Amino acid sequence: MKTRSGRTVYSTESPVSRKEEPARGSFRSLPPAEQSPRVRRDRAGRGGKTVTVAGPLVLTRDEATALLASWKKLCGSGGTLKEGKTADGSPAFELEIQGDHADRLVGELVKAGYRAKRAG
Predict the structure, then answer these.
(1) CA–CA separation, 46 vs 76, rounded Å?
(2) pTM exceeding the 0.85 threshold for the entire prediction
(3) 111 exposed, middle or buried (CB, 10 Å; 0-12, 13-18, 19+)?
(4) Model confidence over 43-62: pLDDT tens digits?
(5) How many structural domains does the chain have?
(6) Torsion of CA 59, 30, 106, 43, to 10 degrees
(7) CATH code of the domain covering residue 79
(8) How far, in Å, CA of 111 to CA of 67, rounded?
(9) What stretches of 6-116 show up as alpha helix (H) in DSSP?
């Protein structure tokens, strides 16, 4: 039975599971040669602590997690994965590594085939 506004008041049909909804932002991967991530040092909103931010990177979540893990081992530091957007609005990731490791990460990205640049 529905009200005038169209809202279901009572129904004998099976409920819609929220698990069936698509995940936030469908991430797909782009080849490294088609991406130009920027690597910058940032301190804003972090209590004076320095982090190195690399992105936007259009990768799947698994690829981004694997890349972040390898960078954390390389730098001997912690880090996190943030969801963001590219300039055209498509979903992407930003990888944050604690400390100032910008030059090292630019080198790693270039070695992997990305057109990375240092920003800031």
Answers:
(1) 20
(2) no
(3) exposed
(4) 988 888 999 999 999 999 99
(5) 1
(6) -40
(7) 3.30.780.10
(8) 13
(9) 61-75, 102-111
